Amino acid sequence: MKYMNSWKRRWSRLKRNKVLSLLGLATRAGKIKSGSFLTEQAVKAGKAYLVLIAGDASENTKKKLSNMCSFYEVPARFYADQDTLGHAIGKEFRVSVTVTDAGFADEIEKQLKTEEERNCI
């Protein structure tokens, strides 16, 4: 029962959050790479359009991924935590999620900006 309650809370958060919903949709479309190793491969191959890095990732991982993304000119954003990112794409914990489709990446960035504006006001 305890597990079910935490799942319900995460599901309700996922339904309300458009960024996480878009990540789930992109996953079902096969346009997501997850984990730091696959993120690194996608960025270096030029297939990445957006990288989301978990806010609770280690400082070394954050620095490594953000430096790599800036070198290859791929937008990188810090978002949520490892559990939330993983749950949004149907996995467990994920430090990074890479979007490999330009349309999904643009829409996710737009939603991130509206979330930032809503939180700032």
Automatic annotation (TrEMBL):
It holds the Pfam family Ribosomal_L7Ae. Keywords: Ribonucleoprotein, Ribosomal protein. The lineage of its organism: Bacteria, Bacillati, Bacillota, Clostridia, Lachnospirales. Residues 18-107 form the Ribosomal protein eL8/eL30/eS12/Gadd45 domain. It comes from the Bacteria. One of its GO terms (cellular component) is ribosome. It comes from Sellimonas intestinalis. Coiled coil: none annotated. This is 50S ribosomal protein L7ae. SUPFAM superfamilies: L30e-like.
